[in-house]
Amino acid sequence: MPKRVLQGIVVSDKNDKTVVVKVERRFTHPLLKKVVRRSKKYQAHDAANACKVGDTILIQECAPISKNKRWEVVQGTAEASAN
Question: For the domain 5-82, what is the CATH superfamily, name and number?
Answer without folding.
Answer: Nucleic acid-binding proteins (2.40.50.140)
